[in-house]
Amino acid sequence: MLLHTNKGFLYSVKSILRNPGKTAREFIDGKRVSHYKPMLLAFLLSGISAFISFKVVGLTEVLQDLYAQQHVNSALMNDYMAFVRSYNSFIMLALIPFFAFFTRLVFRKWGHNYYEHVVMNAYIISFYNLVTIFLVYPVLYLLKGNIKVFGLVTELVLFLIVPILIWFFKAFYADKPLKSIIGKVILTFLLVLLVLVILVFIAIVVLAVFMKHKHTH
Q1: What does the pLDDT look like over 148-177, one tens digit per residue?
Q2: 130 vs 126: CA distance, rounded Å
Q3: Vertex 36, ends 2 and 46: CA angle to 5°?
């Protein structure tokens, strides 16, 4: 049983590295025998990514030093920003249902339901984690002595999301024109970004009111 499970995990990882969009399409079309369950795979890869981030790269400590040098307004905000960057793999995992809502909304005319979009986003997050584990973290590990460049790389990594999405959906919807894929991906990205910015703004306002109230008592 364990051997079969390991084979499924390794097979899925190898397939995702080759072509995440095609892998997701195969799973949704019913070719599931050799594949690991998408949400479980995303969870495991997020756990591996978070472990490497925390124990090997030391992302939290390096980013806390960086934000301290940049004179971030408060220790609480410093810790918050470092936590979000360090554990973004688990944060993105938790947001899969949220991302699926927007990809379903934008791609709704192309014929897949919400559950299928949850599966798609699980594969997207899995691929993102694999890129982070095999490409980004080794680079960050080598840059630990140069905090400014280290911080710049952590910011640039976020820009990988758009090309990953374009590649994924072009492979998933192989019969659709690339121009349509790019347009829908950009729209999805902007919608998600807008909603996240609004939510973060609300969280900051609530936090500021809470801190002000705390200091007045």
Answers
A1: 787 788 778 878 889 999 999 999 999 999
A2: 6
A3: 100
